[in-house]
Design a protein that fits this description.
- With about 900 residues, the chain is of the alpha+beta class.
- The chain contains 17 helices and 45 strands.
- Helices cover about 20% and strands about 30% of the residues.
- α13 runs antiparallel to α14.
- Its EC number is 3.2.1.40.
- GO terms for molecular function: hydrolase activity.
- InterPro entries: 6-hairpin_glycosidase_sf, 6hp_glycosidase-like_sf, Alpha_rhamnosid, Bac_rhamnosid6H, Bac_rhamnosid_C, Bac_rhamnosid_N, Rhamnosid_concanavalin.
Length: about 900
């Protein structure tokens, strides 16, 4: 990624259908930009990748297609009037900037356009003795007829696929084409293979196809064939010769096919790879004797759509930290970190001569006796099995599955000398660029933040899953919406969320209700669980969060009908339009205020009313943002009606009639309150926490907003005390127990060392990690001014005195540029340094400041609030500012 970090449709080198947005940053430039241009050109030649993947070459611009000047401060272009992009092409985006010193900066980034599929057929293998459990192989040799200018290979699958050229995997994408609402959209990918065909000789193309999400077992019922009864592959190689002519090699009956060495592949169970299977060496053995003609399948091609977000890739490799024999005699690897991905095994380093039956069984934690704990996997097996492994097989690893694990039990039918260098854990997730960082002098909080990030990495595997290890791994809407803000701080995940939101709109029910998981594989099994408050509200909350972080209105335009349908559903789902859905709800999931229940003590109608009001207000703001004034007025009327109903139903004086922590939190976050009511509810919340020995008892619904409800309403010290609480229940309890990710339950491992019930005990469940949003906004202090989006109007307001910390630093790479804040408190003497992006403006708020202690003259726009003891300083972006002052 270059100095300007150019993004096209919020991605690096994407495959696109419509060019929607080009963005870049000027953080690293030494001076202010005074002029610039943006140019788009058609490109010939091969990709300029530098990752060592197949398809490396030199780009050659052959035809400019669009050009425009840039006003100073512009870093996003989203209007491309008159631009018509040709299909099956590679384009370059070139940004040229001139700074105030006269120096010119120029960088380019690539993107690809899509294809049509009339010339290609879905194909499968009907010669399958394993009845569809294992992989299928496909092969064809391609011979260019003339000198090649460019060659693009488009591919997709009903299942999961990998594609190879001359025995080498093309690209580094994994789990392609990803998981979508397959009946509405199946993604396809593109690979620039120009250099492979420019040699002039024949090139053998091979593909592997496995069940994946399309055909494999899904949900705790391990329901097979949810989307179809047969997996198939489709591909199209588009070759453009130097004379301008074109040739296409597409999937059809001329491709050869056979079963492959992965004789069993399931997402939950793992893979069995047979080194003695007839085609085990197909990548090195070019013969295809005995292979059959591929069978053409009649299946819908209209659902094929270009890749919507970043693909899954290996983003890090983790080595073995120790090898030990557990009390039950099992040889166990400890990677030191609960992660998601796969284990690569160097068989030459591990195995003795001859043939060995080898298996790897993955687990997250150890049980109280010190053995690997498999109970929480439920029906999932999480295994790599090699029944006939030899040292000459090279490296072994899974291809079409992923596991959640820290520990791996190694079993073999022969003695092994375990060399830790023989194993490495490859971390796999959607390859989103990292954007957010936090650190402080409290190592426990630093570990909590790391756990939040690792939890996101482990659960953002193409869809935002609840957990990555057991027989579930589903895109729960409630988990997604509570974590969205933290997720957008941590990673550039806008494209990831937009992909998921497109599936939400596709799977939305006819009455506007929203399934509990997206893609929807639950409705056929448990239709009564749809449209729960806080879960279904993801239809409105998540696109609004994406808009707030990016400033890109197109996400609201794309999701507007879906958002409006959810509000309309809630209007019809109760006795009046103001109550919200009165049907099934998950409640304040896994709250601790009702022993023995997962649903929490807060009444479900109360939750439904609060969220109905919250999302209605978001819809009002959305309609106003898009210029839909009539809609905005209608939503304002609805919101006022909900307010009146809430006041009549849930108040006795200034106090709420529902006395749970979550009830107070939601009222403070979501409802219109008088000053007296707000003060009384905040006081009640504070007392509920303090009288509970400064512990929370909230679940998925109340926890994300708990600290902000306290700190924004006069009780920041209580919020900090909750955050830094180490006893159960608390965020730091799991850290003290050795957690390296966020747990599903506050006490997944109880204080006496025993484990929560096997039925629901994930140790990588990111929802409670939503506290990361508070770390960014209140400890680092990075936020936006009210009503703003895209981080052009920034507020920096850390809770320095209330935090009790000595130093905090953090940053967020926003769409406007990098925002960084660092502060230190030495016995009341504070030093703060803030970096604000060029073109942005910030208000810096110094709470608890002693009047007259600031080492900076106040400008005409600056103020000191004597009553609150706070400086309000106005700072224009483009440079860092350092402030020294004293706490009062």
């Amino acid at each position: 990624m270059g100095l300007l970090q150019i993004r096209v449709n919020d991605q690096e080198e994407p495959l696109i259908g419509t060019l929607r947005r080009v963005s870049w940053t000027v953080d690293a430039l030494p001076a202010e930009v005074v002029e610039g241009t943006l140019a788009i050109a058609l490109v010939g030649g091969a990709s300029t990748q530098t990752d060592g993947a197949v398809g490396i070459g030199t780009a050659e611009i052959v035809e400019p297609v669009w050009w425009d000047t840039l006003a100073p401060g512009v870093h996003v272009v989203s209007a491309f009037d008159g631009l018509n992009l040709a299909l099956e092409r590679r384009y370059s985006v070139t940004v040229t900037l001139v700074d105030a010193t006269g120096q010119t900066w120029q960088e380019s980034a690539a993107f690809f356009t899509g294809t049509t599929w009339d010339e290609a057929a879905w194909v499968t293998c009907r010669d399958d003795p394993t009845e569809g459990e294992g992989e299928f192989l496909f092969s064809r040799t391609v011979q260019p007829e003339k000198p090649v200018a460019s060659a693009l290979l488009y591919a997709s699958a009903r299942g999961l696929y990998e594609v190879y050229a001359a025995g080498e995997k093309i690209g580094d994408d994994l789990l392609t084409p990803g998981w979508t609402s397959y009946s509405h959209a199946i993604q396809y990918q593109v690979y620039d293979v120009t250099t492979l065909l420019q040699g002039g000789g024949p090139v053998r193309l091979d593909a592997r196809l496995a069940n994946g999400w399309y055909l494999g077992m899904l949900t705790w019922d391990k329901h097979p064939h949810f989307y179809g009864a047969e997996k198939s592959w489709i591909a199209k190689l588009v070759v453009t010769y130097t004379d301008g002519t074109r040739a296409v090699v597409a999937t059809d009956a001329q491709w050869r096919t056979a079963p492959g060495p992965i004789v069993s592949s399931e997402l939950y169970d793992g893979e069995v790879i047979d080194g003695k299977q007839a085609n085990a060496n197909f990548l090195t053995d070019g013969t295809r004797d005995g292979w059959q003609a591929a069978t053409v399948v009649e299946a819908d091609k209209a659902v094929l759509t270009p890749q919507r977000d970043q693909p899954c890739r290996v983003t890090e490799t983790v080595g073995v930290q120790r090898i030990f024999t557990s009390p039950n005699g099992a040889v166990t690897l400890d990677f030191g970190q609960n992660l998601v991905g796969r284990v690569r095994v160097d068989l030459a380093r591990l195995l003795p001569a001859g043939e060995t039956a080898l298996s790897l069984h993955h687990a997250e934690v150890l049980d109280p006796a010190g053995n690997a704990y498999f109970g929480n996997l439920r029906k999932a097996k999480q295994m790599l099995v090699l029944p006939h492994a030899t040292p000459g097989d090279g490296a072994a690893l899974t291809h079409f599955t992923f596991q959640g694990f820290r520990y791996v039990v190694v079993e073999a039918n022969r003695p092994l000398v375990l060399d830790p260098r023989a194993f490495s854990a490859e971390v796999v997730h959607t390859a989103m660029p990292r954007t957010g960082y936090f650190t402080c002098n409290d190592m426990m909080l630093n570990r909590l933040f790391d756990n939040i990030v690792w939890g996101q990495r482990g659960n953002f595997v193409d869809v935002p899953t609840d957990c990555p290890q057991r027989d579930e791994r589903l895109g729960w809407t409630g988990d997604t919406q509570v974590f969205a803000s933290t997720g957008l701080f941590n990673f550039d995940s806008a494209a990831f969320y937009r992909k998921w939101l497109a599936d939400l709109a596709s799977d939305q029910l006819e009455n506007g209700g929203v399934p509990a998981v997206i893609p929807d594989v639950i409705t056929p099994l448990q239709p009564e669980t749809n449209s729960s408050a806080a879960w279904g509200d993801a239809a409105v909350i998540v696109p609004w969060q994406v808009f707030q972080f990016t400033g890109d209105r197109s996400v609201l335009e794309d999701q507007y009908d879906s958002m409006a349908a959810w509000i309309a559903f809630n209007n019809q789902a109760g006795p009046t339009p103001y109550t919200g859905n009165q049907g099934f709800h998950y409640g304040d999931w896994v709250a601790l205020d009702v022993p023995g229940s997962n649903f929490g003590a807060t009444p479900h109608p109360y939750l439904a009313c609060c969220f109905h009001r919250y999302t209605t207000e978001i819809m009002r703001q959305t309609a106003r943002e898009l210029g839909r004034t009539d809609d905005a007025a209608g939503y304002a009327t609805l919101r006022d009606g909900i307010d009146a109903y809430f006041q009549k139903t849930y108040f006795a004086g200034d106090e709420l009639t529902v006395q749970t922590q979550t009830a107070q939190v939601l009222a403070l976050k979501m409802m219109r309150l008088s000053e007296g009511q707000r003060a009384a509810i905040a006081k009640r919340l504070n007392s509920l926490v303090v009288n509970n020995n400064t512990h929370l008892n909230t679940g998925f619904v109340g926890t994300p907003y708990l600290l902000a409800a306290l700190s924004d309403n006069g009780y920041p010290e209580t919020a900090v005390a909750l955050l830094r609480q180490e006893d159960f229940p608390s965020w730091l309890y799991s850290v003290r127990q050795g957690a390296t990710t966020i747990w599903e339950h506050w006490d997944g491992i109880r204080q006496d060392g025993t484990l929560w019930s096997d039925t629901m005990n994930s140790f990588n469940h990111y929802a409670f990690g939503a506290v990361g949003d508070w770390l960014y906004r209140h400890l680092v202090g990075i936020d936006q001014m009210a009503g703003e989006s895209g981080f052009r109007q920034i507020q920096v307001a850390p809770l320095i005195k209330a935090s009790g910390l000595r130093d905090v630093s953090g940053s967020y790479q926003s769409v406007a540029g990098k925002i960084a804040v660092a502060w230190a408190n030495q016995d009341g003497a504070v030093v703060m340094r803030a970096q604000i992006p060029a073109g942005s403006h910030a208000e810096i708020v110094l709470f608890d400041a002693r009047p007259g202690s600031l080492d900076r003259a106040l400008g005409s726009r600056d103020t000191y609030d004597a009553a609150a003891g706070a400086y309000h300083l106005q700072v224009d972006g483009g440079a860092a500012v350092t402030l020294n002052y004293a706490l009062r």
